[in-house]
């Protein structure tokens, strides 16, 4: 299996202009993943876990380092320097992101939101409708909510919808930022089932978790982010 992504010497800091300070969130992060791998990342709140994902997804541009992604369409792409056109394409067709928060266009229903993800992949209208309904049913989102606006949903319902929207596209690389944060036990099992299915299909995944029990027998490798540095969890547990 070849590497699908390689993060090399990644560093990111934020500037507090009124204080003239630089806060280093990430320092010399290095990690490479092969197709079909699932890597779990833990760490205290504010340790920089989400910052890693936002750099990969190109929400943030790091000060140093590179993120090489082996795109199906473009070949090797350094995501830190990719064009906006490339980034938009990759987000639509190859790289998925599940955050703890759901940001959608107003007056877009849950069904339309998930369906749109399938249509973006170039699939037919009927197929997109079927896939959207299957995914919403899998996450046990009440059928009465399918044609409602997500702004009215609870936190757990929004998170389930966010996961459904990303997973329905079966992306090549999927970033999961606390995908079980506000879910009940049954919903967590639904997420786990789909993660296992995507792994079987060859999707590469990186997940941020506080729920260590959820990670058991699921991740191929586990890391902890500490003081802006990525450390193998096995090494951390020795001390």
Automatic annotation (TrEMBL):
GO terms for molecular function: ATP binding; ATP hydrolysis activity; transmembrane transporter activity. One of its GO terms (cellular component) is plasma membrane. Residues 5-238 form the ABC transporter domain. Keywords: ATP-binding, Nucleotide-binding. Coiled coil: none annotated. It comes from the Bacteria. InterPro entries: AAA+_ATPase, ABC_transporter-like_ATP-bd, ABC_transpr_LolD-like, P-loop_NTPase. PANTHER family: ABC TRANSPORTER ABCH.1, IMPORT ATP-BINDING PROTEIN. This is Phosphonates transport ATP-binding protein PhnL. The lineage of its organism: Bacteria, Bacillati, Bacillota, Clostridia, Eubacteriales.
